[in-house]
Amino acid sequence: MTKSIELPDPSQIPDADVVVYDGKCKFCLRQVARLHAWDGKQRLSFLSLHDERVHSLCPDVTHEELMQQMYVVTRQGKVLGGAAAFRYLARRLPKLWLFLPFLYIPFSLPLWQWIYAQVASRRYKMGRFEDDCEDGTCSIHFDKKP
Questions:
Q1: Where does 49-137 show beta strands of DSSP type E?
Q2: By the 8 A CB rule, do 50 and 21 touch?
Q3: Is this model's pTM higher than 0.85 or not?
Q4: Largest CA-CA distance found in the chain, in angstroms, rounded
């Protein structure tokens, strides 16, 4: 069973970047819990894509796009998705600095985006454990092809 963790809400830290993630995905929940644990300076707040406030935060991003990848809305209002969002987070969190040289290899972002998409499209399978899947949410994407 996944331990429930209290993630900081954008209303609690209004000057923080906002990580928009799939709050019904156990794999995603584990990853944002890690990000929160590594964020010792409260640089990040978190919002499930299923929260009604997401549309006002990033109105140009559709629900389907939100379901495909994590997004970060920066303090300046810039919306980054997938590998670009991870690359941004790697600059913000010292624990991820090890990845920076690889993430910034010239012209490599499309490759990182492809790798990110492969993981994201399989996230429900990666998060599926016998006692870990509530109300069938883990099976939503099982028949989708990446």
A1: 71-73, 79-81
A2: no
A3: no
A4: 43
